[in-house]
Design goal:
The complex is a heterodimer of chains A (247) and B (244). By secondary structure, chain A is mainly α. Chain A has one domain (2-243). Helix content of chain A is 76%, strand content 0%. Chain A contains 11 helices and no strands. The radius of gyration of chain A is 18 Å and the shape is globular. By secondary structure, chain B is an alpha/beta fold. Chain B has a domain at 3-78 and 150-243: Rossmann fold. In chain B, strand 4 (58-63) and strand 5 form a beta hairpin. The longest helix of chain B has 16 residues, at 163-178. Chain B starts with a strand and ends with a helix. Classes of the chains: A mainly alpha (247), B alpha/beta (244). Chain A binds chain B through residues 2-3, 5-7, 10-11, 13-14, 17-18, 80-81, 84-86, 88-95, 247, and chain B through 51-53, 72-74, 76-77, 79, 81, 83, 85-92, 96, 99-106, 147.
Chain lengths: 247, 244
């Protein structure tokens, strides 16, 4: 525990020194929320809807930080620590090298929580946001999204040949998901054909779960997304454990 | 005899190329053992096989009377390792790297005292990447000493240090040796080997060409200086002459 805490403190400091996660995981979601709030205000999502457009988008915005940490932050830091042989150095100490990976997962989890809390505060204070559904369901869904995206990131970082490859794969995963999954550009604003295409992105499925929880829609509608994300998390974790390269 | 490191018939190859061939030696408690040889002779591979970062094809390794694979956690409380290459995070400070390293062990040494002793106490807040080559090298030796180890592995310990810094490092290591610390080191500097090492092993293409004390190495060769003897054992002098 002493090791974990000291590592967490130091790695968190290093991460803050880099600033990128503060920008992409904490500031950016707030900017998206504020922009959508200014454009749509507290207008209903569609004529006769009992919830606002912003409430419909809240779940999506809450995944921006998870996406940044999971498929951009994690792959880069894991492959970087392998190529710098930090994982290898830990192999000749009493501590197992996976501890530092756990520390990284915790750090990206912290960023995601910080983002979620700040979004709740801003949405509540300025845009009359109300959680229509169950908070408990929302949190569970949010954790599932985090679990599945982090497992993708860990897999990419763990098996990519080098930092450059990891960076390329991370970009291929991150930018399409950020733009097309509904996290920044609302899914509802997309043409039907495009919606069908972006449904293959894991984050699109995750956002459906969160949206449904926020708006209090029936759980049956999102059984498929829940199943998809669960399978994804299991498969990626399995691949990571089996094929992770320590050096 | 109290052996701290015992290596028997160590063999390691990469594909068809044999890196270390049937190497055996043992290091007594409180002594310094030097592993010598040209680049690519198998020194680093040998160290990696002993500390378990590379699997061995054949043979047996025992550290402090314990098999590494079976009791890894317990053993690494007492073993310090300095790597040839730098292994640290991009933006980490000297103090932070020491603090994290200390947190890995149950009873770590006081790293501030070590930093002072090695003359880089004032660099605690500096970024590791901004240290000079010599300062960084000293930091890596400190990292190997933070566990309060009974045995340390030092790979090319004074490479990149200036003459004065090398002398200082030797002085500190001799002090630690007098306190009972066992060391296995690799080096390209024969003056360093003469000062520090009790026994040496010279490798050539993965095979042992000499094993014994420094004095024996000189006596068994036609030369009077260790450097000449070393070159004679490794045949490097002949090759050099052919180049003229």
């Amino acid at each position: 525990m002493k090791t974990f805490n000291t590592m967490l403190k130091t790695e968190l400091k290093l991460s803050l020194r880099g600033m990128d996660m503060v920008i992409f995981a904490v500031c950016m979601p707030i900017v998206v929320l504020v922009v959508l709030g200014i454009i749509y205000g507290d207008k209903p999502a569609f004529d006769g809807a009992r919830y606002t457009f912003l409430e419909q988008s809240f779940g999506a915005i809450a995944t921006i930080a998870i996406c940044a940490g999971g498929v951009m932050g994690l792959p880069l830091v894991v492959s970087d620590y392998r190529s710098k042989q930090i994982l290898k150095r830990l192999k000749v100490t009493p501590v197992k090298p996976w501890v530092i990976l756990l520390v990284q997962v915790t750090i990206y989890g912290i960023y995601s929580i910080m983002s979620l809390i700040s979004l709740f505060i801003v949405a509540n204070t300025f845009f009359d946001f109300r959680m229509q559904g169950s908070m408990f369901q929302f949190i569970l869904g949010w954790l599932l999204v985090m679990l599945s995206l982090f497992s993708i990131g860990m897999m990419v970082g763990g098996i990519a040949k080098n930092t450059k490859d990891a960076g390329v794969i991370a970009s291929i995963l991150y930018f399409p998901m950020l733009i097309f999954s509904g996290a920044t550009v609302p899914y509802e604003a997309m043409p039907k054909v495009l919606q069908k295409v972006v449904d293959v992105l894991p984050l699109t499925q995750g956002i459906k779960i969160l949206k449904s929880a926020t708006l209090g829609l029936p759980l049956e509608n999102v059984m498929l997304p829940i199943a998809i994300l669960t399978i994804l998390a299991v498969v990626c974790t399995g691949v990571t454990i089996r094929f992770f390269k320590w050096e | 005899m109290d052996y701290v490191i015992k290596v028997e018939n160590l063999k390691k190859s990469y594909g068809k190329q044999i890196a270390v061939d049937n190497l055996s030696f043992s290091v007594e408690k409180g002594t310094v053992f030097g592993l010598l040889g040209a680049n690519g002779a198998g020194k680093s591979t040998t160290i990696e096989c002993i500390i378990g970062t590379k699997p061995l094809d054949n043979g047996r390794v025992c550290i402090l009377g314990v098999n590494l694979v079976k009791r890894r956690k317990e053993l690494f409380e007492k073993v310090g390792v300095q790597f040839q290459e730098a292994n640290y995070q991009e933006n980490i400070r000297v103090g932070e790297l020491c603090q994290v390293t200390a947190s890995l062990y149950k009873k770590p040494a006081d790293f501030n005292a070590l930093l002072n002793k090695f003359g880089i106490g004032h660099k605690s807040n500096a970024l590791v990447k901004e240290l000079s080559g010599g300062q960084r090298q000293r930091l890596f030796i400190i990292l190997a000493l933070i566990p309060n180890p009974e045995v340390v592995f030092l790979d090319e310990l004074t490479t990149g240090l200036d003459a004065r810094a090398r002398r200082e490092v030797w002085h500190i290591l001799k002090e630690l040796k007098d306190k009972g610390l066992t060391m296995l080191l690799t080096s390209h500097f024969m003056d360093e080997v003469e000062v520090l090492c009790d026994t040496i092993c010279i490798l050539k293409k993965g095979k042992v060409v000499f094993r014994g004390t420094v004095q024996e190495a000189v006596e068994d060769s036609p030369y009077e200086k260790l450097e000449d003897a070393y070159l004679w054992y490794t045949d490097e002098e002949e090759k050099d002459n052919e180049n003229f």
